[in-house]
Specification:
The chain is of the alpha/beta class. The chain is built from six helices and five strands; from the N terminus they run αβαββαβαβαα. The protein has a single domain, classed as Arginase, Chain A, CATH 3.40.800.20. Helix 2 (28-33) links the parallel strand 1 and strand 2 (40-47). Helix 3 runs parallel beside helix 4 (123-141) and helix 4 (123-141) packs parallel to helix 5 (155-169). The protein is globular, with a radius of gyration of 18 Å. The model has no long low-confidence stretch (mean pLDDT 93).
Length: 200
């Protein structure tokens, strides 16, 4: 992925490359290569330390003229679809809008699937984050988007995850992720909060 980003900048005329890594492991190599480079924005969602390799802390943001162009979102093993969507919509999308990439590259690992290592993503979760990334590429760089296959150890979830992503890229439907349980809890909390407020 780092070679592709460097080639795009040196040979293809891209000034700003957005690299997104959704593999369960932190992309420490890619981060190190572009640590002080403002021409590459690196956005990484991964399983938080002490999960291997133990890097990718929230405070790791780059240095020098590259400070702020590394965005790490360490997440717990049980994260799931809704939290992933929230991270991509509320952190990645505004960052991409500010950066305005000429090209979007994705380190597409499938070990975040619920039947693999960690992160508890479903196939619908992969569809949702794929569509978000696709929308970023469509908005900023005329759809210039490339994905590179990375981690994935459960062969069933790997093959089905790849299929879900390709189907999404080809224009397939993306379901709305359910937040029913979260909303129900929030509504119940609000209801009960009023019952125990000081002015009752």
């Amino acid at each position: 992925m780092a070679v592709a980003a460097a080639h795009a900048r040196s040979k293809l005329g891209c000034k700003r490359v957005l690299v997104i890594d959704w593999d369960a492991h932190h992309g420490n190599g890619t981060q190190d290569i572009f640590w002080a480079d403002p021409g590459v924005m690196f956005f990484d969602t991964h399983c938080a330390a002490p999960f291997y390799p133990g890097s990718g802390h929230l405070e790791e943001v780059g240095e020098g003229i590259g400070e702020g162009y590394t965005i790490n979102v360490p997440l717990p093993e049980s994260t799931g679809d809704v939290a992933f969507e929230k991270a991509y919509r509320e952190i990645l999308v505004p960052a991409a809008d500010s950066f305005e990439p000429d090209l979007v590259l994705v380190s597409a690992g499938f070990d975040p699937h619920q039947n693999d290592l960690a992160m508890n993503l479903t196939y619908d979760g992969f569809r949702v984050i794929t569509r978000i990334v696709q929308e970023i590429a469509d908005k900023h760089c005329e759809g210039r988007l490339a994905l590179v296959l990375e981690g994935g150890y459960n062969l069933t979830s790997l093959s089905r995850g790849v299929h879900a992503v390709l189907e999404t890229l080809a224009g397939g439907d993306v379901p709305a992720l359910s937040e029913t349980g979260i909303r129900a809890v929030e509504n119940a909390a609000e209801f009960h909060r009023s019952a125990f407020s000081d002015d009752e």
